[in-house]
Structure formats: C-alpha cells, structure tokens
Amino acid sequence: MSVRTACLGTAAVLVAAVAACSSSSSSGSASATGSALAQAPLKTGGSITVLESAGYSGAWSNLDPAQDKEGAALQDFNVAIYGQLFELGTGGKIVPDLATSYTFSPDAKTVTITLRQGVTFSDGTPFNAQAVYYNWERDLGPIAIKNGLNPPWLVAMQPAPKGSPPGTPEPVAAGAIQVTGPYTIVVHQTVPNGAFIDQLFDSIPNWIASPTALQKEGASFGQNPVGAGPFTVVTNVPNTELVVKKNPTYWQAGHPYLDQITFKTVGSDEAAYEALLANQGQVYEDMSTNALLTESAQHFELENNLGTSPYDLQLNTSIAPFNNPKARQAIYAATNFAPILKSIFGNRYPQTESFTGPGGICYEPVVPGYQGYDPTLAKQLIQQTGLNKVTIQLGTIALSTAQESMEALRTEWESVGLKVSVSSWNLQQLIAAFEANHGKSWESMVQTAGAYDPAGGIGVGFRFSSLSPFSGVHDPNLDKLLNEAQGSTSLATRCGYYNQAAAYIAKNYYGPFFFTLAPSNVSVHGIGGPGLSTPLASVAVVPTIPWEDVYYNPSAS
Amino acid sequence: MALVQQIQLQGGPGARDRARRAAGSPALRMVGRRLLAAIPVLFGVTLLTYAVFSALPNDTAQAVLGLRASPAQVAALNHTLGLDQPFWVRYGRWLGGVLHGNLGTSLEGQSVNSELATHLPVTLELLAYALVVSLLLAIIVAALAARRPNGIIDRLSLVVSMLGLSAAPYAFAFLLIIVFAVKLGWFPVVSGSLGSSPASWFKALTLPAASIGFPLFAVYTRILRADMVEQMQREDYIVTAKAKGVAPWRVLIKHALRNSMFTLITVVGLNLGTLVGAVAIIETVFSVPGIGNDLLTGISNHDVPLVEGIVLVFALITVLGNLLADLLYAVLDPRIRYGSSTS
Predict the structure, then answer these.
(1) What ipTM did this prediction achieve?
(2) Calpha distance B131→A400 (Å, rounded)
C-alpha cells in the first residue's frame, strides 16, 4: 500500500509538470494572434530586454566598429550606440540619420555626403566631417586590414610594398577620401558605383565612433564604446549582456522612446521563446524554428519581415555534368518548389525566379523564359544527357532550412530518375568544399544569392560572377551586365540591367531559384517599432532595427 | 620534496624528523605519484585535441575574414595566426606558451588566459553548487532509503532516481524552465551576467545547477543506497554494533555510511570527466557565461587556442578531482593515512 502511495505521489508530480508544460503552450490561445492586434499606442519611457541568439548576434567581443569581427551580426548594439549615417527605412527608403544627404557625380564615381550639424558624441566631442574621416581611415586602414575587416570600397589604395602578393590589402590612398567642409566628406571611387549608399548599410563605415574616446580608451574602446547614437553603454559583459540607457544628448528630439535596453544572449530559439513567455524578455529577432513560429503567433507579435536573399541552386558550369546546358535544364525541369514550400515551410515565404526578394530593390519574382517544372521534359533530358547514369553531388550549409530544402530536392529529383548524394557542412567546411581543386570539386549547392541591393553583401555577383570563388558561373557576358547594373545611379537603369541578368541566368539555366527566406521577429504585445510591429527589409540576415523608434506600452499587452 | 625542504628550512627542534615523516607519508607519496602521472595525461589530452582539430577540413582564416576576403587577405591572416606552419610547429609553439603560463590568443583576439580568468569561476561555482547540493541530497535520501529497504521512501527514491537517470539533462532543463521560470516565475530563463548580490547569483544558477545536479543525484543515490543496504545486511561489524545495542540510526550513519562513502567518492571522481558535456549543454541552454558555453562556441568557430585552453582546464579539474578523491580515502581510512597494510 505504501509503495502504491509513493508511486502515485511521483506520478502526481509528473502529471503536474506535464500539465504545466501543456498549459504553458496553450495559455495564450484565447488571445488574438499577433497579426490581428492593432499596433500598441506610443508610450515613452520604460525598459525592455532584447534576446540575442548565441549563435549569431549574441556573440560579441569587441564593439569598436573597426574591429568588429562579427560584422552585421552586431548591428543591434552598433545602431543603439553609434546610430547610423543612413538608415534603410520602411519601404526601402534611404532615411537620413547622422548624414542628411548624398549626391553622386554624373559618372557615378564620386559621392559627396553631407552630415548633420549640431550633433555631439555622448562624451561631448563634436560630430563632423573630421570625425567621419578619422573613422573611415581606421575602417580602411591597418587596424581593420590586420583583422581582415576593411570593407571592399572601390577607392584607390596605397601602392603595395615590393614583393607583396597580388591582392594584398593596403590602406586607402591619400586623396581618395576628402573632407571638403566642416560637414561634407567626399569619396572618390575608381569605377562607377551607384550602389555606394546601399553598400553602407550594415557595414562598418556606417557606424561612427567618437575620435576622442578612441584615442583616450585605446585598446579598451571596444569594451567601453562611445558614439552619437540614441543610447550610451551602462555595462558590457561580452557574449552575455549589454545594458544601454537613453543618451540625454541625442540629436533627435523626443527620441529614443525607451529609457533602457538590456541585450541578453540566449542559447536557443526554445530558450528565447520560454523567456518571452515568462516576460523575462520582450523581443527576440530572427526566430527560425518553424514549430516555435507557429506557437509564437499564438502568444506574441510575430513580424514576418521582408526577405532579400532567395535560396537558389548553384550549378558548377566548369565541370561535368553541369557544363552541359541540357543537363542544367533537366534540373530546372525536375525542380518544383511549390509543394516543398507548402509542406515544409507552410507557404510562409514567396517563391521567386530571380536573385531579388520582396524587401530589396529591383524585385522580379517572375522571369521571362524561366524553365518551370516539367517532369516529362526532365525525364527526356535526363535520358538524353546521361544524367541517370551518374550520381549528382548536392551540398549545402548545415542550417536546418537549407538541409530540409536539400533533402526535399533529393526526394523530388529521385522521383524523375536521378541519383543524388547529399552533404551538409559548417561554414568552414563549406568554404573548403567550394575551394577544393580550384573550384572544380563541387557539382551543385543549395545556397542563398541576393541582397537588399544585388550589388551589396552576398549579392548576385557573389554566386554568379567569374571573379567570385563561390560562383559556379564564368561568363563574361553576365559579368558585363552585372557591372553595368552596379555602375549606374539611376534605379530604373540598374533594375533594367538586373532584369536582363535574371533573364540571362534563366536562359542559360545557370541555377534555379526557390523562395526568399524572410526573417521573423517575435515580441511581446505592447512593443512597437520598425521591424517589430511594421515590416522592414533586411540588408544582411535580419532587418536593422532603429532602436530610437522602438517603444514598449505594457498596458497594451 | 618541496614540503620536506620547507619543513627543514623552518628549523626548530625535531624539524628533520617531521620532514622525514612527511616525505615517508603514504598519502604524500601518493599525491606526488598522481601529480607526476597527470603530466602525460594532460599532454595526451592536449595533443589529441590538437590532432583532431587539425584533421578536420576547415579554413579558419577564411571563416574569420568572411566569404568576401581575398586569397591574399586569407593568406596574410593564416600567416599571422601561424596556421601556415606544420602541425608539430603549431603544437610545439602552443605547448611552449602553456609551459610559460600563456594559453595563447583566441580567434576573437582575446587572451585565452583572461577568458578563462573571467569565465572559469562561473563554471566552478556552477559545478560546486550542483555537486554539493546533489551529494547532500543523495546522502540524505540514500540513508533514509537504506534504513527501510523496499519501504515507501526507498520506492519513491527509486522512481525519482530512475527519472534522473533516464531524462536527458537538456530536456530536464526545459522542464525546469517551464515550471519554475515560466509558470512560477521564481527563476530566470536566461542566467546572463549573474548579478553582484548573493540573491541574484542564487536565482541565476539554481536552475542550471538543478539540471546538472539531478542526474548526479540519481546516480549517487542509487549507488550509495545499494552499498549501505549491503553493509547493513551483510557486514559483521554492523551485526556487532547492533548486538552491542547501538541505536539503528547511529549504526547506519556512523558505521554503514562512513564505509559506503568510499564507493560514493570513487563515483564522484569518475563522474567529473563526464560533467564536461553536461556543463557545456546546460550553460548554453541557460546562457551561463562559463567555459562550457565558451567550449561549444570555440568548437563551432574552430577556435583551436580557446578549445585547447578549456580542454586543458577540464582535464586538470578531472585530474585534481580524482586526486582529491584519493586524499579523501586517506582521510576516511586510517590504514591508508598511516600506510598500514590494507590487505
């Protein structure tokens, strides 16, 4: 009898625990979904905790922009501390922040940027063209070069010392960047580049640090950063927690809305979701676990932002079997991404036939002449080209979305008679796979190609230009189209060239496109702001949230 | 010998005799032997780790610099990091640094020494919290269970222990989070920077310590309970004590438990090595800023100096933990302490 009582007692504890689990996942089911709720009314003051993924934005060591090895992953902190010269706003608008305007010369080689007047860094140092010049010299100089962080600006560089290997980075040449007035700075590029401002987004030169603090703090600046952004640093425990408070000298009246933000590293999507449920965090960016996205929509605000980088299939045209256009066409005809998108991703993302996404410029979801799904044609071409006699090597990066896509493709291709061998690697192994045997070892890869501006970031050239080691295409005609698209300052002209490039890729079957992954941000009810309650385009992985515009109204929860 | 010399230098009457006794102490000789044996163990662990990392396909410099870096930039960083050197040169250079107290620089540009100085105390605190609480609870529960084998407490402890042994720490951690952080709101989901007050420290580390400690508690309870029951039912000295009229609780605690502690100490020492995996996972789940968390980050970033430094520390903890276990034998057993025959 006593034994039974003991077991019953234990069972009761278990049942209580399980009940706690199940009720936690259903407690919010009575409330309206995030998307159905109206945006919370604006409220100033208060504080929030933003959860940062340990595998991406939650890993930081140095907040000095010139030594930011994590790159765009640290955009939350950099935007809060330094602000930005230009912001990428809602609807893809270029929003002036610490810079007020820009002009291109007619040949698109020279860019003149005008800076905001009357701004000071939080340590009292004036914000002006000299401060920007000081920062850019660091960003393009020995400190950044030593760490391999200097951005690939198309400006003249100092001559390399004799004996240096070709391509060795050197600091920027004298005169390539000029201060032409107290609030005017000019960049002289060596080739036409109409994408210069777009390329600034989410890059190191868009974040300007206080020159005084840089000199005073020296090596410890990265732990105690000073900028002219909406917040100043209170405490900084790298990789763990960054606390910032409202900058009393911030230039924009009435901003920031929040008094304090705590950025806290969290180990996984699941832990972040639980922290939001416990209201121990209010915002989590880039939730990628599908099951948790569905749950989050029940309990929180779920903002599906605008994607810019479509998944695509890269085909290596340098080697067999995909040096044969008919074999590439067979792959196009054998690929139907609609059922995959529906069954795996719940139709959450839009399909596309090009390298642009709905959040970026020149978006073109349908490309004339694009070879669609045609299993009958696929089978004919497979027989004709002998693809059924070889095993196709298909690879991707070890991320769940990419791996699921790859597995689904394998199943689909096998149904039309192809034999497929799949591999997934971490980033380093993936790089090694691309580079092995001078780029002639890999056959096909599921990757992403595209960016907010196709000329920036991991854009179209990265996957399709002859010069990129991560491209499977070596076609001078396509290179020419891409260069002409980047070289114009007219958006219409640029989009015209990009549309031609998309049609050219489709015509030559250089690689089919699948869907544009859209980053989803989750926040508790009552949070408002771009990227959290209204959609924003992402430049890199997630949209750059302007934290000065974010507010928290708990009474609207 | 250092201790002997120290005693000799202190001088005074009988100092030489005391020094001789110390040198001849079996416990001290054992410590010396174990420390000497630790050297090849630590060397082997670091060499193996270095070899495994070198064998993995990777391009660390390219990964650090990003996909857009030029081959010249990659080559320059490889040279700066010494990655263009042969395996033995790289390992020899790292080992030379270790012998001089320098564990190198991580790929993030941070000194591994300072990383460990910042994060090792957190991990040690977490491990100590988990170990101490799980041991105390295990001793109490095992004693209660052993007092009446097959009684209600014994059966209950069996069920709880089975749960602890069968539940993955990762899953158990989330169960704790849901119940104690989300539903009850007693503890944080994210430990973060732990805070400066004892209360915030306690709140931040309780759930991670419980996640690590519960499986340990389960193992310790089952082993200690089984050993104590055997002692109570089969050993002559127990029968003698009972015949002398010693109170049952006193027999259990003073005699059976004391003898059963040898088994427990052995298991605790052996378990230390396996704790590495649990610490790495649990620290990541709760975002505890310890070296377990760093270890996973280092492995995914292929940060060899950081991983080597942490592996070395974990190996050292395991070796020292086992040494401590051996010393505890001596504390508990006068025959070991005084070098008598144990046969």
Answers:
(1) 0.72
(2) 36
